[in-house]
Fold:
Amino acid sequence: MIDEKKAQTLKVIKLSLKGLARQGVFPQSDMDEFQAALDSATEYFSSDGISPEEYQRLAMRTAADGVDWGNVGLGLAGESGEVADAIKKHLYQGHTLDLPHMKEELGDVLWYVALACKCGGFSMADVMRGNIEKLKLRFPDGFSAERSRGRDK
Ligand SMILES: [Mg+2]
Structure:
């Protein structure tokens, strides 16, 4: 369910931006960007999602003091291993792929990603943006196996 405060905020943003657009504040050449921004704001405010900043803040509530890259590396490997083990058991041992369990384990991986960000002093949002930018440069037209094989690294 959409938070009432989010819904009101979105309504104010939409009305403000549409009013500015009607007054010709935005040049016609910016209208695509304007619409994309409006769509993005709509998607964000309409979701029940959690922002990267909010996740990082809430997750690190349970991080111990004095964590270091050793905690990060071993924790990431351990939780990733739990995901890999569930897939292995599904593919080769006839286990049902327990999706709620997978979801939980992916959350554990994410928690260690947040811990890595804490150790590195960067935000999860920056990591996410950086990854998307890298992928856009690497695969501007979407993934291509041929382009992937042609990469140096
Ligand atoms: Mg786990």
Observations:
- The radius of gyration is 21 Å.
